[in-house]
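JOB MANIFEST
job_type = single_chain_structure
chain_count = 1
residues = 179
[input]
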Amino acid sequence: MANKIDIRCILHDHLHSLVYTDGKRNGWDLVSFFLMPLLCALLFPLNGWDIETEALSTFGNMGAIFIALLISVLVMIFDQYQKLTDKLKSLPADYDYAYRKLLDDRRRLMKQLFANISYAIVVSIFLLVFSLLQQFFGEESTHWFSVWVARPACVFLAINLLLTALMIIKRTYICLTVS
């Protein structure tokens, strides 16, 4: 894969951000963010459910809007991360340990938040692509790609994106309010 579009590092960092505060893996996060949306996505073809054209259009709009909004949030978080890093570097080595730990913990949370926002942007791009592919098949909604790939992918990506957005909102709130 071309190095410039290789997103594996984003996926890796996002998966490694789904941990408890002590750094241990949180299995419930994996169930909530991946298994539950996957099961919901598989219900569509297995039950013969369809997605209306308006819903597909909404998925595409949602992806496009999230891309623009999340890029601006990414810039804001990066700026805050840089300020926090500069503040930590300017403190003397023997400065209050509790304060240094608080700043370092906040910095670690911002780094995870950066990975989560980047992941959400990637998911938004894929949601946009799959909703466009689904719309490409138009009236031929019985095509195997539409039934077994595009629709379930749209459902999985939309649910995953919404859950990730909630996590981003909570982590941003914590970063900006906890002192």
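[summary]
The chain is about 80% helix and 0% strand.
The mean pLDDT is 87.
exit_status = 0
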